[in-house]
Amino acid sequence: MKLALLSFFLFINFTQPKSELGTIELVVSETSSDEGVIQLLIFDQEDGWPDSLDEAWKMVTIPIKNGIAKKTIPNVSPGNYAITVFHDHDKNGQIRKNKVGYPLDDFGFSNNPSIVFGIPSFHKCSKKVAAGKATLFEIELR
Q: What is the pTM of this model?
């Protein structure tokens, strides 16, 4: 009984109240079709950016409807987050690339930065998620 009470009090003390958490609102547009799904990785740190499944905070799959994919992610700890996304036409979870490594599937990054000089940094793509607020991430595929 003592162990159960101790576990309960530790759980209460170490979990964040929902009012201290934020929400991510995702909108991915400019899809070439409703075929397949949108795959995305959300990062809360620079490590692993932009494609490490092991380092990503969360991986999300979103269905496409009328050329747009939308998703709400609740209970997000405050901090900076960056998102990388691609249109997974064949639903296999992997982006198709040509022989030199350029993506064949449409892709994008949060904040829609320029990609003329290569993959944008975590800092260019990150946005602050605040406690008790919804943060909108609108990503256009290219």
A: 0.85
